[in-house]
Amino acid sequence: MVLYDFLYLDRDRVDSFYAQLFEGYLKQIEKETSADQKEAEKVAVGIKPFMNGELSGYKTIKESKKETVDPEQIVIIDTLSILSKNSYNINKAKQGDIVKVSGNLHIATNNMLKMFVDVGEIFNEPRSTKEKKELKKIKQLLTSFLNHVTIESIMLLKTGSRSIVGSLKKEFLREDPETFQLKYGASGMDNVTVLGFYESDHDETAMNYHPSDDFISSSKQFAEGIKNLFFPPHSSVITPIAIYKEIEIVTE
Fold it and tell me: How far is CA 132 from CA 22, 123, 128, 136, 138, in A?
């Protein structure tokens, strides 16, 4: 038997998919249990002129009990099982396809990235005045990006030589990202599965500004710059539905 330890779960999507798959939302389940109980009984008999007296025996009484069961886990497992069966290999997926990948998980928050920008120069130790000036410009650019971009958390899943990245919503996280970072640090969490929508492959693109570019072109460059900031080159971008560990147990 396999148990699922969820680190992230997009309940809005799961509930919506369940309603579409099973034609409605499951609010509650009524479970009825019954038990047979035997009760001694005596029946007076009188069949004249043959016999008078009492006939002893037992009658069976059926008792039933109804209880309401919270269907939350049933909805989650049923929906994810169907999505998993219909997932694609990420190497062959098209935009919008459901993919399922496993690997080593890292999570970073916007605050963590800001802190890294603030203290990163301590570790880089630039050796020349030119390097210090370049680092200052980069720091200003990164700080501006982080102050204006509302991405709360980023996931990075390493599977072999490939990187899988995606943004995470705070309300769907089952574990605090900063606590996660404290527990696992640079090593990350192994054997984690991500189920989600494949969006694109990301290759780092240089931001070249051309005065003749129109607003749309400039916006595209800005968006590409944000991707370059958050996502490593040669990575695949997905929208996670669920992130979890599978725990195998033996039941008797």
Answer: 60, 13, 6, 6, 10
Q: Where are the alpha helices (DSSP H) in the chain?
A: 11-22, 72-85, 110-124, 129-148, 177-184, 215-230
pLDDT per position as a tens digit, 175-213: 888 888 888 888 899 999 999 999 988 765 444 444 444
Q: Which of 237, 232, 227 is nearest to 198 (CA)?
A: 237
C-alpha 73/C-alpha 87 separation (Å) is 21
pLDDT tens, position by position, 93-109: 999 999 999 999 998 87
Give the pair of three-digit tokens for residue 61.
Answer: 């009484």
Let me know: does 135 contact 240? Beta carbons within 8 Å: no
* Any domain includes 110: yes
Domain that holds residue 100: 72-248
